Amino acid sequence: MLLEQLGRIDLNLLIILQVLLEERNGSRAARRLHLSQSAVSKALGRLRDTFDDPLFVRSAYGLDPTPRALDLQQQLQPILLSLDNLIQPPAFDPASTEREFVIASMDSAFTLFAPLYLSELKRQAPGIRLRYEEWTEHSLTEMSQGQVDIAFTVRENCITSDFRLDTLPNAICQRLLAIDDLTCLVQQDHPALQETDWDLARYLAYPHVQTYCEGRDRWMLDHKLAEQDLYRRIEATVPSFEAALRMGMHSDMIVTLSRLYARHATQVYPLVPLPLPVALDSISHLLIWHQRHEEDPGHRWLRETLL
C-alpha cells in the first residue's frame, strides 16, 4: 500500500476494530475505549466502508465477526503490537548487547583514560564492541554525520585560540574530564639536564619534536611564542604522541606535551621531565558527543560508564 493511501486511513479505527473483535459486544467495547456507543457505531460504519465488508453480524450473543473480520484479526494483532513497541521508550541491556560504539581519540587520551573505564565497561557489557579511530580534523564532521559516537579531545583555554571550548559546534555536548597544562620530557642524558639556568632561551636553543594533531602542527604554545617573534626549532613532526616520545628517547629533541600524559610516559619510557619555561593558559580534556544521542539509553549508559 502506498503511503498516500495509508494516510487516508484513520489508525484509531484499527484500535476500535481490535477491541470489537476482542469484546464481541458494542457496549463493552465502548466502555473499554471510553467512547459512547454512538461513536463506536459510527466507527464501525467507517470500518465497513474501508474494508467493504459488514465485519460483524448481530446475534443473540452480541456481535459475530465475519470471515473477513477474523482474517483481519490475525493480521491486526501483530501490527498493533509493533505500533505499541514503536512508541515505547527504547531499551538497552548492557549484559546482552552486542552493539558497536565508535570512539575517536588521540593516542594520548586513549592512554590516559582507557585504563579508567575499560574493565568496568567490559564487566557490564561483555558483548560490546568498541572501534577506536584517530581523532583528526575531520572527526567533528564525522560525529555530526553519525559516523562517530563519542570522542576524547583537548581544547585550549586561551582566549585567542581557535580551539577553545566555545568554538565547538552548538550541537556538540561536552563533559570536562580534567584540567591540565604542558610540560617537557627529555632523554635521561640530555644536556639540558645539566643546565644551571633552565629558561626560555635554553628551551628554544634545543631541537624539538612536534605532534601533528587535529590538522595542525602548531599549537597555542607556538602562537604564544610567535607573539614575541620567537620560534621553536622543530626538527621532526610526527603523527602521534607515542611517536614523539620515541623520538625524544633516542635524540636531543624536546617533547612538549600534557603534564598528565607526561606522568604516564615517565613510567614507561626512560624520559625525564623538565618544566616548560613559558607561561601558558591551561588545556581541558573533554568527552564530547552529538546532541542526537542525548536520549539514547545505550549511549547514555556508555557516557556514564566512561565518566
UniProtKB/TrEMBL annotation:
GO terms assigned for molecular function: DNA binding; DNA-binding transcription factor activity
Pfam families: HTH_1 (PF00126), LysR_substrate (PF03466)
UniProt keyword Transcription present: yes
Alphabetized InterPro entries for the sequence: LysR-type_TF, LysR_HTH_N, LysR_subst-bd, WH-like_DNA-bd_sf, WH_DNA-bd_sf, YidZ_PBP2
Signal sequence residues: none
Residue span(s) of domain HTH lysR-type: 9-66
Keywords carried by this UniProt record: DNA-binding, Transcription, Transcription regulation
Family of this protein: Belongs to the LysR transcriptional regulatory family.
Name of the featured protein: LysR family transcriptional regulator
UniProt source species: Aeromonas lusitana
Upper taxonomic lineage: Bacteria, Pseudomonadati, Pseudomonadota, Gammaproteobacteria, Aeromonadales
